[in-house]
Structure prediction request, 115 residues.
Amino acid sequence: MALKQDKQLKLYYSIREVAEMFGVNESLIRYWEKEFPDIAPKRAGGKIRQYTKEDVESIRQVYYLVKEKGMTLAGAKQQMKQNKEGVRNTTELVKRLKQIRDELVSIRKELDYLT
Prediction:
């Protein structure tokens, strides 16, 4: 799922916002946090998680490997350990392609409306 434009300007995201971005439960985000050291949100007041853009991108990579490619957590960990740059590049490419698809669908709807 793509980030909303206004959310790209934020410095920190709540766990609820991050979970909504990916359509998953907050508990899954907390679980991934324990399993993947790259997901390390700041803690405000000791308990409230504050996710940076980098944390969100790490979550996007885990989401892609586990939810979209169907890998196990062990497989995703191994993939990220062995080829972190490749995983990052692939998830960025998938993100861009989804944005292009959304734009094309929007254009098609407008063209259908005109005819």
